[in-house]
Amino acid sequence: MIASAEDAVAAVEAAVRERRRFAVTSGGHCLENFVSDAEVRVILDVSPMKRIDYDAARRAIVVEAGATVGDVFRALFERWGTVVPLGEYPAIGMGGHVVGGAFGFLCRQLGLAADYLHAVEVVTVDADGHAATVVATRDPADPNHDLWWAHTGGGGGNFGVVLRYWFRASGALGDNPRRLLPPAPESVTTFRAEWSWADIGRSAFRRLLANHGVWCERNSGADSPNASLWTLLELHREQFGKIVVRGVSTASAAAERQANEHLAALADGLPAPQGRELARLPWLEFALNPFPDLFAGPPGGVSVKVKDALLKRRFTDRQMETAYDHLTRRDTDVMGGMLGLATYGGRINTVAADATASPQRAAILDIACTTGWLDPADEAKNLAWVRALYRDLFADTGGVPVPADAYDGALINHPDSDLADPSLNTSGVPWPVLYYQGNYARLQRTKARWDPRNVFRHALSIRG
Ligand SMILES: Cc1cc2nc3c(=O)[nH]c(=O)nc-3n(C[C@H](O)[C@H](O)[C@H](O)COP(=O)(O)OP(=O)(O)OC[C@H]3O[C@@H](n4cnc5c(N)ncnc54)[C@H](O)[C@@H]3O)c2cc1C
Fold it and tell me: Do residues 297 and 330 both lie within one domain?
């Protein structure tokens, strides 16, 4: 357990000296086995480091890496009335989260969490195997600026042990901590509705997806009044019985109308969705327990596979047909299979692709092919189903969302080792380009400078 910078430096140096492969963990929510890899001999767990405070010297909120997303939402709201647009699940650890860019329910309105990163403190290891702490800041004149930049989307487990992050909105003036980050929403309005698969045939399915895609194309500008709305269309497998749409709005008095208009746009030419629920609740109550049914898992947990992609435009007719075919396949029993379409864009797309290490600044949709299973015996059929769906959706570009006119690659916070498998990625485009696009060369230089011995590594780590 790492409880201080001294602990971290000593533990890293010992592991390097003893040539023991190690990995860092904060919240334990990695979607690949980067920490649980069988070759890892030492796990450095920074979860005891949870302090959150105002640092007057840096005019920024300082957050230790072991704090969870929920801890940060609570402290920011209760102490300063502010927010950073962190991820959707409160138990995620800040250590592995922010360095991956970090999108969430408020990202269309406020951008990525990494867009608010002012500075970061990291334990790095030099060519001689000595570990030391270094602070890297957003200031372009800072000699360590490249290390700060790498922590705005380079991904966890690449450069060193993150101990602390400092957050402040770019350009924020003064030293009042209540004004250095965006104000938290006073309340949020959530909604949910569903269609029964019994009412959705092939043509209705296509209509629903087309309606949804058109809405995203028209409402994903940063200046759109609907940037305050985030929604998720859950295209569960037919076997599951229903298609669900849910959303969260910060538009206060206009939120109910906004939700109704969104549902009406999706349902245009279709039966109206059933079971509409709408609720207004305080921001913190939502942030600490968002959509309980979405994240609820059985005791003992569930195994999942998540295959993420960013779209710059809506699905083509062929992709809609493909989605329908896989979701209605009867030759396999994959109850937990789903294609999820989350709205994206808005404020995220106002930042230049190279201003941070998160290059995906032109997408309007974050889609995920996912599945989950309880019994290890069901793993093979679940993986086969979800891989086939993803491969066929992106069949025109080698089975993966190659960044170009239609796609914006994939997010490193949703790592998928399949992208490095030449039998599943036949595009000829290497996996780092899918995650980092034109930023990869700079990340490699940063890696070579700050981790010359490549002691921080995993299946999808940056190659120096
Ligand atoms: C249920 C769920 C919901 C999610 N929702 C979102 C979301 O809405 N938005 C989003 O952006 N992401 C989301 N994620 C992905 C999540 O942000 C990443 O998996 C993140 O890396 C998790 O960080 P962690 O510290 O909890 O995980 P860990 O498993 O502890 O670490 C993940 C990776 O980061 C490295 N790492 C961890 N701590 C440190 C540290 N202190 N210094 C350096 N490297 C470190 C690890 O070595 C590993 O490579 C979600 C994941 C899950 C499981």
Answer: yes
Is 349 a pocket residue for ligand 1 (Cβ < 6 Å)?
no
Same domain assignment for residues 340 and 277: yes
Containing structural domain, residue 227: 187-437
Query: 445 in a domain, yes or no?
Result: no
Residue 372 has a CB neighbour count (10 Å cut-off) of: 20
Same domain (yes/no): 131, 239: no
- Rounded to whole angstroms, how far apart are CA atoms 123 and 164? 10
Q: Which residue's C-alpha comes closest to atom 11 of ligand 1? A: 102
User: Does 31 contact ligand 1 (Cβ within 6 A)?
Assistant: yes
Coil, helix or strand at residue 95: helix
Q: Per residue in 215-243, pLDDT tens?
A: 999 999 999 999 999 999 999 999 999 99
Same domain, 191 and 234: yes
Tell whether ligand 1 has an atom less than 6 A from the beta carbon of residue 373.
no
Question: Mutation test of ligand 1: which of 152, 413, 462 has the most ligand atoms closer than 8 Å to its C-beta?
Answer: 413
Tell me the CA–centroid distance for residue 30 and ligand 1, in Å: 5
Query: Are 22 and 84 within one domain?
Result: yes
Q: How far apart are CA 108 and CA 93, in angstroms?
A: 22
Task: Encode pLDDT of 358-413 as tens digits.
Answer: 999 999 999 999 999 999 999 999 999 999 999 999 999 999 999 999 999 999 99
pTM greater than 0.85 (yes/no): yes
199 lies in the same domain as 161:
no
Do the beta carbons of residue 46 and residue 122 sit within 8 Å? no
Average pLDDT, the chain: 97
- pLDDT per residue as tens digits for the range 315-366: 999 999 999 999 999 999 999 999 999 999 999 999 999 999 999 999 999 9
Summarize the confidence of residues 415-424 as an average pLDDT. Answer: 98
CATH number at residue 102: 3.30.465.10
For residues 304 and 372, membership in a common domain is answered with: yes
In this structure, is residue 352 part of a structural domain? yes
Contacts of 260 (CB under 8 A, 6+ apart): none
Residue 172: other Cβ atoms inside 10 A: 18
96 shares its domain with 9: yes
Instruction: With residue 292 as reference, give the H or E element that holds it.
Output: helix 292-295
- Please give the tally of structural domains in the chain: 2
Q: If you measure from the C-alpha of residue 352 to the centroid of ligand 1, how many angstroms do you get, rounded to a whole number? A: 24
